[in-house]
Amino acid sequence: MGFSGQQKTSAGMAAFGRPRDPVIDLARFFCLILVVLSHCMMVSPVLHPDGTVTTENTLMEQHWFEPVLWVFQVMPLFFVLGGITGLESWRRLRSRGGSGIEYAQLRLLRLIRPATALLASMFVGLWAARLLGVDPEVVQLIATGAGMPLWFLAAYLATQLSVPVLARLHGHSPWLTLGGLVAAVITLDSLRGAFPMLAFVNMLFVWCAVQQFGFFIADGIFAGRSRGWFVGLIVGSNLLLGLVTGIGVYSGNMIVDLNPPNFCMLLLGLSQAATLQLLRPGLDWAAGVRWIRWVVAVAGRRSMTVYLWHLPLLAAMSGLLLLTDFPKPAAGTAEWWWARPLVLLGVLLLLLPVLLLCGRLEERPTAAIHARGRTHVAVVTAAVVVFIPVVDAAFNGLTLTLLGGGAACFALGVLLLGRVPAGVLAAAVPDGPAVPLPEPGLRANLDS
Which of 22, 239, 366, 392 lies in disulfide reach of 287, CB 3.0 to 4.6 Å? Predict the structure, then answer.
């Protein structure tokens, strides 16, 4: 299908005229909803009589919820979906003469622009709160709330930047590549008792291995398999998960196994990849329903903004309520559970102005001639600059000072990266000038 300077894609089309997979969009929307709902059931700040403020993860104290997490811990599925779309995007770029460094530029730019706005806004807002006399512990509580979405952004970005290398290895030997990553995960897990810091290295190996499941789906390796085959894969992976948790090798709590990730997340990712393929016919039908398609399309255009901002807004709302006489039922009580719908409604209302002000940062920037000369050094430097504050936050926690430094680092990364390379677009538009890229379906969020 040809492309011209005047032509724009519809909301159902992906980059350069390739049809979007509605099943992937629907699955991603489902994951995002579960993440927002679960966080609304987790955050529970407590104001103690001595004036100190702490947070409780209510769901972590509910033992009945541990088996439920085997179903609703959907972080692995995000990386499976990222593997599908990442491999397809890389192959489209490469077919137009693009390079790995251009792929990295696009991925970095489209993910860190929304995050820059979050960090800068929180830094300014929390400093204003300090100057207005808000308790420093409440300010730190809110700052900590911003750190949780950022670990995912860092892990997702790292796996996406590895796509060109892993795609090459996958093309030569897909099973050997997956086996090597799985072996690395198991090796690091076995050494984490003696060397605890190695556990954080698995943030790369675990999610890259899970991402490979998406490569298998994108390549059609799972296509044509019977429903019984997928059921067997789901049952087998969960039986193995039950074995390694039952004998005490790993925790049975999937939140514990998520931070940092371990072999359990790999097994969950395999189960969820198989479930996605097993349910694909039903999901395909549901994605074709008009109102569902409309909801998914609207939410998908701002999914990264929702993901990045919902938890900081939840933490801010919860923290500020501590300063008022608003009823604060004890975590885990019946009153606390009945208040969860109100908490969710409050977060959604706070998200509306944020979506209006910051949502457009998810749209792919227009092509610019000045970006043509971006060097390898600029892109690599931008990547290093972006990861420095994220790694610091992962090891030492997010502070008000680090928020400011992170915002500056992310802004510098955006400046180093420039905008979409004009050369990439020119390869797709023969004999045509650099033109604005189509906005629908080309967003700086999780679906690209």
Answer: 22
